[in-house]
Amino acid sequence: MSSGVGVNPECLEKYQELKLGKKLKYIIFALNKTNTEIVVDKTSQNADYDEFLESLPEDEPRYAVYDFEYDKGDEGKRNKIVFVSWSPDNSRIKQKMVYSSSKEAIRRGLVGIGAEVQGTDTSEVGYDAVLEKVNRR
């Protein structure tokens, strides 16, 4: 189901920067105030996963991509781009519905996602939960 929400071109530009330029570590996307377009909310070059989690609002949904680096033992370090669909339990129901129905609009344009994680609290998108998900693939 699509909500008819558009994706601001800057979202895809920043994603390409993260994917190809390897300078950005994460991007957080949000709906604009009128719920008509997905826009870039924040970008960061900081690889600190805890900072990323702190950037997700406690009471509002967001979408995010994170360039997740992990160690595969003898195989060395790996990177996977992880798409995060963040919808905390204490968000307003209308917000959750709009974000849920708009997810495909942005997800379609993000080619090269290695894993997808949905979370309603930080334990579901925490480092260990994401590590388990990327190691399965």
Structure characterization notes:
- The protein is an alpha/beta fold and 137 residues long.
- It is built from 5 helices and 6 strands.
- The protein has a 6-stranded mixed beta sheet with strand order 1-3-2-4-5-6, with helices on both faces.
Task: Draw up the topology in text.
Blueprint (H helix, E strand, L loop, with lengths): L5 E2 L1 H13 L4 E6 L5 E8 L4 H7 L6 E10 L5 E10 L6 H17 L5 E5 L2 H4 L1 H9 L2
Parallel strand pairs: 1-3, 5-6
Antiparallel strand pairs: 2-3, 2-4, 4-5
Brief overview:
This protein has 137 residues and is α/β, with parallel strands linked by helices. It has helices at 9-21, 49-55, 93-109, 122-125, 127-135, and strands at residues 6-7, 26-31, 37-44, 62-71, 77-86, 115-119.
Which residue ranges are poorly predicted, with pLDDT under 50 across at least 5 consecutive positions?
A: none
Helix coverage percent of residues?
A: 25-40%
Identify the strand order in the major beta sheet.
1-3-2-4-5-6
Radius of gyration, whole Å: 14 Å
E-strand count: 6
Overall 3D shape: globular
Instruction: Specify the biggest β-sheet.
Output: 6 strands, mixed
Distance between the termini: 27 Å
The portion of residues forming beta strands comes to 25-35%
Query: Overall mean pLDDT score?
Result: 92
Structural class: alpha/beta
User: Helices and strands, in N-to-C order?
Assistant: EHEEHEEHEHH
What is the helix tally?
5
